[in-house]
Amino acid sequence: xxxxxxxxxxxxxxxxxxxxxxxxxxxxxxxxxxxxxxxxxxxxxxxxxxxxxxxxxxxxxxxxxxxxxxxxxxxxxxxxxxxxxxxxxxxxxxxxxxxxxxxxxxxxxxxxxxxxxxxxxxxxxxxxxxxxxxxxxxxxxxxxxxxxxxxxxxxxxxxxxxxxxxxxxxxxxxxxxxxxxxxxxxxxxxxxxxxxxxxxxxxxxxxxxxxxxxxxxxxxxxxxxxxxxxxxxxxxxxxxxxxxxxxxxxxxxxxxxxxxxxxxxxxxxxxxxxxxxxx
Length: 279
Description:
The chain is mostly helical. The protein has one domain: Lysozyme, CATH 1.10.530. Helix content is 54%, strand content 6%. It has 11 helices and 5 strands. It has helices at residues 2-31, 46-54, 68-78, 81-91, 95-112, 114-124, 142-153, 176-185, 191-210, 219-228, 255-263; strands at 39-41, 130-131, 135-136, 242-248, 251-254. The strands form 2 sheets. It has a 3-stranded antiparallel sheet with strand order 1-4-5. A two-stranded antiparallel sheet has the order 2-3. A hairpin with a 2-residue loop joins strand 4 and strand 5. The model is unreliable at 2-6, 8-36 and 54-58 (pLDDT under 50).
C-alpha cells in the first residue's frame, strides 16, 4: 500500500510539473513573440484589391468562397449582425471592416483546425472562439488588448483618440486581467471582441492620420496592421499589404490581402455593406 501511494505521489508530481512547464512555456512563448507566425509581403493578390478599389461595381470573385468553410463562416457571422451594428454605431468603425479581419481569422482557424471544424464549427455553424495564445473570435492577444486600453488613456500616445474615449473600456471589477479574459472569450456574446477590434482600427488610423498618411480607405492595409500589431505600425506613404501567411484551399494569401479582397467582394454585402469612407 505504501509503495502504491509513493508511486501515485510521484506520478502526480510529474503531471503537475508537466502542466506547469507547459503553462510557463506558453507564457514566455507569447511574451517573446515565439508564437508569431511567418509573415509575408503580398504582391500576388494586388489585382483583387485594385479591382475593388477601381470599381465597386466590378465585384471580386474569390476562389475560397465556394468552400464549405466559407459557407459556415457566412452563416455564423450573419448571426452577429446585430452586435456588429451596435459596435459600428458606438465607434464609427464600419462593421464590414471588422468582419474583414474576423473572416480572415476564422478562415485561418477553419482551414488549420480540421478536427474542430468537423466536430463543432461545421455542425453547429458557429465562430471559433480562441482562449489560449490569442483570445476570442477576433484572435486578439492579451498584450494587444492591454495596449488598446492604455492608448485610450494616454494623451502622449500617437494612438490616443481623445478625452471622450478614455473610459470606453473601463473595468467594473478589481481584477482587470480576469475581466479582460472573460470579455474576450465570452462564447455567448462577442461584443467586446468586436469593440476591441474597432478601437484598434481607430487607434491605428489616428496614428497614420496624424503622421500625414491617412489610410481610412485602405481596408487591406488596416487588415495588415490589425494582424502585425502596434509595434509594427510605422506610417509611410507606400504601405505594403502583408501579414501572416495563410493557406486557403492550397493557395497562399496574406492576412491583409484576404481582409481587403473580402471588403471589395460581393460577399455578405446585405449584412455588412461597403462604405464610401471607412473611418
